């Protein structure tokens, strides 16, 4: 993959830089302030491909699966989004940022989906000095794997952790060390709001314009979260 992307970047550079960028590679090639090498541009493109192919699409897939298995949640989500759609149709205006923030139950569905099926199982961290945590010594230079799923699915942190329950977030704080689908601290994922926004837009259009039947499928959690059969689904557009 790296060789293929690097070859594409080199071919574009040899053809010359376009005055008006046509894609992301052109934008990076035009960036004279950073003087990016072909290797750095290739790395950037691959970094963009991973969340575009894996993280948000898997989040959407899992949300659809969980909603299919929880009719009350699907009903409440549908009512909330249809109400917004009717309002926007009456005003003759498209969706905007404030609309995304005005869908509280939709956000709870996304949050619960992230808790149960976050594609990033954990992160690696290196101890810069000896660290003692709860009686355990982590020597300087050792690497530690912080497993998000073990925290998100711990019954000490969440009642009935394997049950999809968006309502659990009604009065629960998302800004805690018990909920870290996007990491935390200085390494907090910069795509946090973008991922939520994309998932919100997808769910809005899905429940207001379509009905579907999802075949039974199984979630595979290792090495990353995936649907075993890629979740076959039959979708039908709803007449306005």
TrEMBL record:
This is 3-epi-6-deoxocathasterone 23-monooxygenase. InterPro entries: Cyt_P450 (IPR001128), Cyt_P450_CS (IPR017972), Cyt_P450_E_grp-I (IPR002401), Cyt_P450_sf (IPR036396). It comes from Medicago truncatula (Barrel medic). GO terms for molecular function: heme binding; iron ion binding; monooxygenase activity; oxidoreductase activity, acting on paired donors, with incorporation or reduction of molecular oxygen. It is a single-pass membrane protein. Keywords: Heme, Iron, Membrane, Metal-binding, Monooxygenase, Oxidoreductase, Transmembrane, Transmembrane helix. Heme binds at residue 189. The keyword Metal-binding applies.
């Amino acid at each position: 993959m790296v060789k293929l992307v690097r070859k594409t970047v080199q071919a574009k550079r040899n053809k010359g830089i376009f005055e008006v960028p046509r894609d992301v590679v052109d934008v990076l090639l035009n960036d004279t302030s950073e003087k990016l090498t072909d290797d750095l541009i290739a790395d950037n493109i691959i970094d963009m491909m991973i969340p575009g192919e894996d993280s948000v699409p898997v989040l959407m897939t899992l949300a659809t699966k969980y909603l299919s298995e929880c009719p009350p949640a699907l009903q409440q989500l549908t009512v909330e989004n249809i109400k917004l759609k009717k309002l926007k149709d009456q005003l003759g205006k498209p969706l905007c940022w404030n609309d995304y923030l005005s869908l509280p139950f939709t956000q709870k569905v996304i949050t619960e989906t992230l808790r149960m099926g976050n594609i990033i199982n954990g992160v690696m961290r290196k101890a810069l000095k000896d660290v003692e945590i709860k009686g355990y010594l982590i020597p300087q230079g050792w690497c530690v794997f912080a497993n998000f799923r073990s925290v998100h699915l711990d019954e000490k942190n969440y009642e009935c952790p394997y049950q999809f329950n968006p309502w659990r977030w009604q009065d629960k704080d998302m800004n805690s060390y018990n909920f870290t689908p996007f990491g935390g601290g200085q390494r907090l994922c910069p795509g946090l709001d973008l991922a939520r926004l994309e998932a919100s837009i997808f769910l809005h259009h899905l429940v207001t314009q379509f009905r579907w039947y999802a075949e039974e499928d199984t979630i595979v959690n290792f090495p990353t979260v995936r649907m075993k059969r890629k979740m076959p689904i039959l979708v039908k557009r709803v007449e306005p």
